[in-house]
Amino acid sequence: MTPVQPIQQAQLPPSFYGLSRDQLASHLVTHGLPTFRAQQLFSWVYQKHERHPLAMTDLPLSFRGRLEELCDLRLPPAEAVLATPDSATHKFVLELAGGARVECVSMRTTRRLTFCLSSQVGCALGCAFCATGLMGLKRNLAASEIVGQVVAMGDFHRWQDERFNIVFMGMGEPLANYKALMDAIRILRDERGLNMGARRITVSTSGLVPQIRKLAGEGLQLGLALSLHATTDELRDRLVPVNRRWPLRELMAAAREYGERSGRRVTLEYTLLAGVNDRPEDAARLADMARALPSKINLIPYNPVPGLEWKRPDHRAVEAFAHRLMPRAPAVTVRRTLGGEIWAACGQLGGLGA
Ligand code: SF4
């Protein structure tokens, strides 16, 4: 009897957006192609923003004809793009392989365009005020899906802005998906690609202390933002449960180490919740914490999430809190709320309104 042969699954080509230039070169070499083709492809895709093989006129026709079988240049399709009435903020709902969806946001102010990226579908950390946390963790994103968000949003804005900033403040805890995060950052920083300076990229964390230390050891001048939100362990245990594992003393020591090694001021993100963490004594402790390391404070008036108990303090309470900080803290800003109308503001990502 002839043995049953296993069905051979067709090998899918790797996504272009998940490969560094060196990885792409090695991949092409295994297909008998010279390494410099990787540089040419990076330039076409990331610098000339062209993905159609027919348009890549300085590449031999034989190579262009094989491109689709060598790597996948498709981006995750946008299931929806929602815009605020002033068109300053857009929320993108992207469809990923396997049916998952991820959200990312572009925000334009008079000074700059910023892309807010997601690193996971959902999040395991369950911060008490966050819509993404309510979803739980569905899965990590691959580096290609992180870089894909940038290219999809850049395409949407027709790459009009030569310089834009990136913040990892979307869905998920970026440092819980460390390898994909760093792989994506390496690709985004490639001088033959998008050539993003590390100073234009900010990683936000809820406080994974070992990974903050690891990031400090990368020798990059990435911005680091700490989702602080409370000045006592008692309150932070409630608001940001990962604090039970790495309490404030350990977190602030790691943040100080990061600031000193990177030469960057660490941003202390502080979501103001009415009657919870906006009292004068909170301001006094926050100012003291900020003075203990190279830092700046970013106050975020809470963005409501349906079903959650928290309330946003009124304008006067926000101003009063900021004024209490100002004489004592090194630098204080109050974040303008962008995108609240389309559930695209901080803490609101997670399918609501999508
Ligand atoms: S705030 Fe960030 S870390 Fe916390 S649950 Fe939301 S996405 Fe996760």
Automatic annotation (TrEMBL):
<dbReference type="GO" id="GO:0019843">
    <property type="term" value="F:rRNA binding"/>
</dbReference>
<dbReference type="InterPro" id="IPR013785">
    <property type="entry name" value="Aldolase_TIM"/>
</dbReference>
<dbReference type="InterPro" id="IPR027492">
    <property type="entry name" value="RNA_MTrfase_RlmN"/>
</dbReference>
<dbReference type="GO" id="GO:0002935">
    <property type="term" value="F:tRNA (adenine(37)-C2)-methyltransferase activity"/>
</dbReference>
<keyword id="KW-0949">S-adenosyl-L-methionine</keyword>
<dbReference type="InterPro" id="IPR048641">
    <property type="entry name" value="RlmN_N"/>
</dbReference>
<dbReference type="GO" id="GO:0030488">
    <property type="term" value="P:tRNA methylation"/>
</dbReference>
<feature type="binding site">
    <location>
        <position position="123"/>
    </location>
    <ligand>
        <name>[4Fe-4S] cluster</name>
    </ligand>
</feature>
<feature type="active site" description="S-methylcysteine intermediate">
    <location>
        <position position="346"/>
    </location>
</feature>
<dbReference type="Pfam" id="PF21016">
    <property type="entry name" value="RlmN_N"/>
</dbReference>
<feature type="binding site">
    <location>
        <position position="303"/>
    </location>
    <ligand>
        <name>S-adenosyl-L-methionine</name>
    </ligand>
</feature>
<keyword id="KW-0698">rRNA processing</keyword>
<dbReference type="InterPro" id="IPR006638">
    <property type="entry name" value="Elp3/MiaA/NifB-like_rSAM"/>
</dbReference>
<dbReference type="GO" id="GO:0005737">
    <property type="term" value="C:cytoplasm"/>
</dbReference>
<feature type="binding site">
    <location>
        <position position="130"/>
    </location>
    <ligand>
        <name>[4Fe-4S] cluster</name>
    </ligand>
</feature>
<dbReference type="InterPro" id="IPR007197">
    <property type="entry name" value="rSAM"/>
</dbReference>
<comment type="similarity">
    <text>Belongs to the radical SAM superfamily. RlmN family.</text>
</comment>
<keyword id="KW-0489">Methyltransferase</keyword>
<keyword id="KW-0408">Iron</keyword>
<dbReference type="GO" id="GO:0000049">
    <property type="term" value="F:tRNA binding"/>
</dbReference>
<keyword id="KW-0819">tRNA processing</keyword>
<dbReference type="Pfam" id="PF04055">
    <property type="entry name" value="Radical_SAM"/>
</dbReference>
<feature type="binding site">
    <location>
        <position position="127"/>
    </location>
    <ligand>
        <name>[4Fe-4S] cluster</name>
    </ligand>
</feature>
<dbReference type="InterPro" id="IPR040072">
    <property type="entry name" value="Methyltransferase_A"/>
</dbReference>
<feature type="binding site">
    <location>
        <position position="204"/>
    </location>
    <ligand>
        <name>S-adenosyl-L-methionine</name>
    </ligand>
</feature>
<keyword id="KW-0411">Iron-sulfur</keyword>
<keyword id="KW-0963">Cytoplasm</keyword>
<dbReference type="GO" id="GO:0046872">
    <property type="term" value="F:metal ion binding"/>
</dbReference>
<feature type="binding site">
    <location>
        <begin position="172"/>
        <end position="173"/>
    </location>
    <ligand>
        <name>S-adenosyl-L-methionine</name>
    </ligand>
</feature>
<keyword id="KW-0808">Transferase</keyword>
<protein>
    <recommendedName>
        <fullName>Probable dual-specificity RNA methyltransferase RlmN</fullName>
        <ecNumber>2.1.1.192</ecNumber>
    </recommendedName>
</protein>
<dbReference type="GO" id="GO:0070040">
    <property type="term" value="F:rRNA (adenine(2503)-C2-)-methyltransferase activity"/>
</dbReference>
<dbReference type="GO" id="GO:0070475">
    <property type="term" value="P:rRNA base methylation"/>
</dbReference>
<feature type="domain" description="Radical SAM core">
    <location>
        <begin position="109"/>
        <end position="341"/>
    </location>
</feature>
<keyword id="KW-0479">Metal-binding</keyword>
<keyword id="KW-0004">4Fe-4S</keyword>
<feature type="binding site">
    <location>
        <begin position="227"/>
        <end position="229"/>
    </location>
    <ligand>
        <name>S-adenosyl-L-methionine</name>
    </ligand>
</feature>
<dbReference type="InterPro" id="IPR004383">
    <property type="entry name" value="rRNA_lsu_MTrfase_RlmN/Cfr"/>
</dbReference>
<dbReference type="InterPro" id="IPR058240">
    <property type="entry name" value="rSAM_sf"/>
</dbReference>
<feature type="active site" description="Proton acceptor">
    <location>
        <position position="103"/>
    </location>
</feature>
<dbReference type="GO" id="GO:0051539">
    <property type="term" value="F:4 iron, 4 sulfur cluster binding"/>
</dbReference>
<keyword id="KW-1015">Disulfide bond</keyword>
